[in-house]
Write a structure and sequence with these properties.
4 copies of one chain form a homotetramer. Chain A is α/β, with parallel strands linked by helices and 339 residues long. Chain A has 11 helices and 15 strands. The interface between A and B is large, with 52 and 52 residues.
Chain lengths: 339, 339, 339, 339
């Protein structure tokens, strides 16, 4: 940590900061520049917040040197991590894993049809929402446990794994019983009770970036899960809030290579939520793979016009098939394999 | 709801949309413009998402006419709402209510000293965190129930009410037992399980805007609480995420008059979190009151340099006293009364 | 244009709006919904601002139906436009055109070396800044006309076209004399005097999106150029301002397919400025091509550590060669050809 | 400047950076922490960009210590600066200066009426646009020189000074002839040719923050003007681009006290552009004054419904009078005087 004193800091103020550094068990390292004194904090700064020093008179600002998410960092775990699923599908490494299915499980018939479409295109992980966090209390909130049972049954018919969202700590055991991957949604990225619960669930977790969260915060959210001993965490970029109004969110494509540099956890892109429009899903899915993503999360509906949620951003069977062909060719051109 | 068809929409596509409108129990109202056909949906559109129509071929975009948060809207409840606390303090109406105290309850001594400072300045609601949602899993996470008991005991000594954050649905009964106002933090604005739980708690709720949430979404989150029959909801602007890097967040001061127009729920400003710096708290608190806020949430610490969290943005006793004087004079200049 | 009246609008207020609509030569089309009256404005609304009606009492909001940038729209010019350069290179259509070279022309030796590197990799358009808009008045501001002459001479040796930035209307004739493509930088996207000047320059123009500009505004800026009779306009996404701090800007990858839908003008991606870091340039360049971009703008420097500007985001010769190989394979996988 | 090396930086990489520091005339100061080496650059770093070092292998990031805008900084000029106008009005110091008038000069009659309204309310500086930068090329672009002459003539009748926008360097002499304050609009904040031109105009300048510009960049833009020897520069916060869609821009109220800390230049708030809606102008104007602004820029139109631009955000005469009363009472409550 580097503490920059302001231009008028007195020797007494500098001493007070130095004392505080020592009292926390660190060494202080003074450097007097032409117009500012800078104090280095020597030691593992991670457990200490910048705010500890920002409150001192004479301090202009505090700069962290070490990333606070240690377990999530590539420094700590240099080799790419790979999440292996029971059916042999892998998230991370050479593969590009496509997880696809409807936004919400609506009925047996709808899910059967969607599963059949994605399985036919080589998909090995079925997505579908049973517990749905909805912006309005008056919207369809999902089928709950009944939806979970449908997911499990129909995925099994195709040898697929299941990924589905869990929205509250109490539901974790139930969801973990039926799904291979627990999804933590963007709205819950900083729901720390939930992060702890999925951290001790024994299941791989797909953690979505909050729509107002920095990449640093995403890594710290992952750290909550990793700190429970669960190493199977994948990170998902699904679009952030910006001023641009022609799409629902702005997919932060830079996030893909930035995360791949900072961490060895697999990185997934969700073009459906990031754009909100079916016609944009394939181009953004291709961009995600080209940027180095290890997986994609895609909404597919047999009849988007009849969907109870997210119809506008769901691919129909034909569009999904076309996209899968493109993704395969792109992955090959980059020496990877998509399925 | 208004459905704008694209320039090349066919009569068949227009018919399909019209049929869907009728099948949902609405009337359709066609209007052929110079280059686009526009279809009006006549009826109470609130239960229906725009996405229902966006998925149809030939649809360019869908514009909502009615705000989806009905109970929260000023159309539904025109008169300003006032939350009355057992000790006689009021949030809403002519008063400007200051709620102040430490970020986190750290110890009996710290809380006693802070409570004494704020009470001496006329404050009638003591704030303090017992359950703390922290970005890093390695930061101080609060004293939990022990903190709640301290809050209750020390607030009682001064005849103050207590406001404190609740972060998970299971904790609601415990927190509701000790606090007069339950705070839902920015990270949990879209934690719908929690919103439902505080909605049925029987306690007033202060709902903070998510740092990436629009005002529309804030109102819809309030709607989750109101829909449980709890009408005592106040909204809190605490800064949003923007590109500006000199402050931790950007306080959206426009939000104050915009919310006062859209809803009759009381509006509170939190200048401590919005700025992250003690020296900016008083100017932004003044701005909030001048813009029409009904309350302020202020972090005060007897010794900010020793705080376990948020020291940099906590006012010390002298700065708090000065700010209170300014707030009182400003409120009077606008025909209100601050305490 | 659709005018939504508020819930309490009086018949007199509705009449006043209707009268104004008629006085502007349009027809008014009333639609009374369950809680709001909506007035449609029938006619070509483009020359009229929404603000004309927003100022009327009783008006809640105004929704535009037609995009204000007519000449730039795909409705007006459905077929993809292709910009043909004198040396046979083409921007738009089946080709993916890479424009590469140093951020700033610093010396003959630097430019010769950079030109040799990019030409060897098949690049047909040399980029390089002669007039540099710099955030600080104390930074290197470019070689001016001397830089232009170097660009021209060295590009000619390799049969390359030149693209370079013009920053003020007076310089347009000089820059147009030496360059085949005039670049309008992000800071000048809304410098309308400059847009008019390049519009009448007789040269193709690469228009960069302002870092705080919406895609609608980018199209309206292009409209200023098109309205001067210059149809050779390409649009460039180069990153926008968001809250994310790990990269200098956030490349809005959604912008690529959104623009391709809205307009037939070619779309270019600039991964160098969008990321600010050399190690991120290749992944983002790949993403741009995968999303459908028609061109790339890439900073290359023979010795990035010695660059007078933008060294951190400049590729060295090896990294550039590797990137070009990847781009070619990706373009082929999508049925295009990159050079 | 502080250079943070990454965890795997080699001694050779550290040496290369150290050599470069020395070759630029600085001293290097090494500090080996537990996991990173940090190199301090001792000397006046302002003329050197962070990018000079970011391009070196082994460098993780570079942190500036000194603000690059020296002349604009409060370190350099501690005392509040006051701009004195020929008619005795003052921007800065104890006064709160209101500058008001129509968005655009439309006709003699309109301007006479507007001037009469603002003068009657004690306003001493008349605003009005003669050269208008408009998003669409098809919108009203202002009366040009004719508008300037009207402004001058009508302001003189009331003893008012004139503030008006200049949009291109060639127009500076003409505008400087007729106006006491030259306004540089948000779109032109980074139009450096224009900044240099107003810097040598001999007139005070009101510099508006770009809608995507950080406060650091605003200060560096001011530095361009100050570096020409013009010390009469005021900074204007007029709203930035954020994800919030209920207002046209988000007024960054934090900017007021942040700027007052960083610089001694006067700070002005423009609530008309920041909100885009007349009903929000007064609350935001009050907030600006309460936060410490030295001036306000307000759009007033005798008949907003007939305005050729910005009618929706223009106050009518009654609303303006009410606002002026509130502003005066607020200023007094804070020990200042508004007019």
């Amino acid at each position: 940590m580097i503490i920059v004193m302001n231009a008028h800091a007195t020797p007494g103020e500098i001493d007070a900061v130095t004392e505080r550094i020592k009292s926390l068990g660190f060494q202080a390292h003074l450097s007097k520049g032409s117009e500012r004194t800078v104090i280095g904090v020597i030691g593992d700064e991670r457990p200490v917040g910048a705010e500890v020093f920002e409150a001192f008179p004479g301090v202009e600002r505090v700069v962290r040197i070490l990333h606070p998410a240690k377990l999530a960092s590539r420094d700590f775990h240099p080799a790419d991590r790979v999440i292996e699923l029971p059916n042999g599908a892998r998230l991370g490494g050479k593969d590009v894993l496509v997880m696809a299915g409807p936004c919400a499980v609506e009925s047996r018939e709808q899910l059967e049809r969607a599963a059949e479409v994605v399985a036919r295109n080589g998909v090995r992980v079925l997505r579908g929402g049973a517990f749905k966090p909805r912006t309005s209390p008056y919207s369809f909130q999902g089928l709950g446990e009944k939806g979970l049972l449908l997911l499990r049954e129909i995925a099994d018919e195709h040898g697929m794994a299941v990924i589905t969202e869990v929205i509250t700590p109490e539901d974790v055991p139930l969801v973990a019983k039926h799904a291979q991957i627990l999804q933590v949604g963007a709205r819950n990225m900083a729901n720390y009770s939930l992060l702890k619960a999925v951290g001790s669930s024994g299941r791989p977790v797909l953690l979505k970036r909050g729509l107002g969260a920095t990449l640093d915060e995403l890594l710290q959210a992952a750290e909550y899960i990793l700190a429970q001993g669960n190493e199977d965490v994948a990170l998902c970029e699904r679009g952030i809030r910006t001023f641009e109004r022609s799409t629902r969110f702005t997919l932060d494509i830079n996030a893909v290579p930035v995360l791949k540099n900072l961490t060895s956890l697999p990185v997934v892109v969700d073009p459906s939520h990031a754009t909100g429009k079916a016609e944009l899903v394939a181009p953004i899915a291709r961009a995600g793979v080209a940027a180095g993503a290890d997986g994609l999360l895609i909404e597919v509906h047999p009849h988007p016009q009849e969907a109870l949620s997210d119809g506008a951003q769901s691919l129909d069977p034909d569009a999904f098939g076309t996209m899968m062909g493109e993704i395969r060719r792109l992955a090959e051109a980059l020496g990877r394999h998509a399925a």
